[in-house]
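Field reference: sequence -> structure
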Amino acid sequence: MYNQAEGEISDKTITEIKKCLLTPLEILNKSEKEKHMIVDLWCHFGKVFVSGVDEEEAKKIMTPADISGRLIQTTSSGIKNKDTNAYWKVSFEEGVDPLDDSALPNFGDENHDFLGLKLDHTQWRYDFDFITPSYRCVRLKAWEGLPADSDEKPPIEVKNILTPVALQAEEGIKAWICNPSITVLRGEIMIPNSEYDCRLNLRTGSRYVADEVKDGVCLEEDAILSEYLSNCKFDHSSHSMDLPDEKDCQMPQDFLCMYYREAEERIFSATVDGEHFTVTILNEKGWDSDGSDKRDQNQVGIQYI
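Structure field:
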């Protein structure tokens, strides 16, 4: 059990958190200026699950300090020379219960009470993850209905671009094959008095992968995959994307598709204490290598750029 009476975060704890964050943020700031890195900070809502708690511990009333001492530190230095079975383990599942759309503003609404939200745009996103013959993991990122003023510029989420994909007869959909984004900082915030917890995720990457780091195998695989994906099929009425029909275009040899998701993204602008944020509400479906059935997942993400 959690002791709410001792739930306040002490000044000492806040100072320790600042010290932990300061060095990597300074390094990131230097890299951003030197290498023109793209940085975005996301806060996703969901639930933190704790495993490895025995029955006796579950009956105890615990303070935040007690809980912190029982959680295993996931850094290599944190688990070195420790019996990992003696600590609690944490996992995070993104997603929230279906939202009441009446609580959100529509186009044209001004000065909404909740965070000053204003609906700016609605678009649709599609992702496919592939394992290549050389065991690289790459992702196709595609968008339908990007803002008219985007001027062909990829969204902020598109980093480490390997090659664009020209989709046949689909001029309104923009797509790129990318390397995975780099997570610089990630942490879960457990909120005992709330229905949901949250995860902070600070990601970075250059807009394009430099030509000098691509070898011949990489270039050949990306060209083969790009040609194959240019034949993808879209259903604009249901906003879904499918891989090419195997009768017309087979998956290239030794390529594996491991993951797919489709999401409606409603983009809101928000203002809190003079700070400006982008709030993205996602209605998402997807599947991965664990099964072919699509699973619905409603997500709320707050993005700070």
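Note: Confidence is low (pLDDT under 50) at residues 1-7, 74-79.
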